[in-house]
Amino acid sequence: MSDGFRTIIFEKEGRVAHLALNRPERLNAYSVAMRDDFAEALHAVAADEEIGALLITGRGRSFCAGADLSEFGTAPSQVIARNARWQRDVWGQLIDLDKPIVVAAHGYCIGSGVEILLLGDVRIAASDTVFGMPEVQLGMIPAAGGSQTLPANAGPSVALDLLYTGRRFGAVEAVRCGIVSRVEAPEDLDPTAWEIAGRLSELPGGFASGLKRAWSAGTEMPLDAGLVLESRLAASLAG
């Protein structure tokens, strides 16, 4: 699949759609142009019934080094520059996508990079990945879900530590915090990510989306209601 995008590479291999952040000269910093390319690619993934899973990676030395701070100098204020990145609901598209999402991080995974990662279903990282959420230290509040997804995965105490201090941490701590589920040697990251995405893409139709719906909806329900939802989904798919 040819892409035609400026800031990402979008390709399809078998039933796997691959979206690679591709601003290596800026360590894949998230910009307005990347937002637009990302949104367009996610629309294509959602609409293509042949696609069974989405793999998100980053090209070059970094997964995503956060928001592109150079855009702040071209806008009337930091707030306006920052809000421009969220005028298309890329994060909502990731949440609503009913196909498994695999995210593989390496190098720097900072700010927006962590937020993209946390919206994946299966999250892996190279052993040399550096993580951080520096927004508060820069006089901002995370605006792409980080204040919600980080506590949901790491727990409130750890999340507040990371959000308040903005400190950087490595892959071992990211596993311990529940931010990623596994760590791979840098040379094994891409092959492992592709292998996982390939297996997930071949899951029987409806079952992956059903499991994802049961999990996402169930997290907002009391346990008994979540169990009822699970039983209903299981019965409907079995039928």
Tell me what the structure shows:
- This protein is of the alpha/beta class and 239 residues long.
- The model is unreliable at 73-78 and 226-230 (pLDDT under 50).
- Helix 4 (112-118) crosses helix 5, helix 5 (146-154) crosses helix 6 (156-165) and helix 9 (207-218) runs antiparallel to helix 10 (223-238).
- The protein has helices at residues 32-47, 78-85, 90-96, 112-118, 146-154, 156-165, 171-176, 186-201, 207-218, 223-238; strands spanning 8-13, 16-21, 53-58, 101-105, 108-110, 122-126, 130-132, 169-170, 182-184.
- It folds into two domains: 8-201, Alpha-Beta Complex (2-enoyl-CoA Hydratase, Chain A, domain 1), CATH 3.90.226; 207-238.
- The radius of gyration is 18 Å and the shape is globular.
Task: State the total count of DSSP E strands.
Answer: 9
SSE pattern: EEHEHHEEHEEHHEHEHHH
- For the record, what is the CATH homologous superfamily label of the largest domain? 2-enoyl-CoA Hydratase, Chain A, domain 1
Number of contiguous helices: 10
Helical proportion, percent range: 40-55%
Which CATH-level-2 architecture of the largest domain? Answer: Alpha-Beta Complex
> What global shape is seen?
globular
Q: What number of domains?
A: 2
Please list the strands of the largest sheet in the order they lie side by side.
1-2-3-4-6-9
Biggest sheet details: 6 strands, mixed
The CATH topology name of the largest domain reads: 2-enoyl-CoA Hydratase, Chain A, domain 1
Mean pLDDT: 82
Radius of gyration, taken over Cα atoms and rounded to an integer in Å: 18 Å
Spans of at least 5 consecutive residues whose pLDDT stays below 50 are 73-78, 226-230
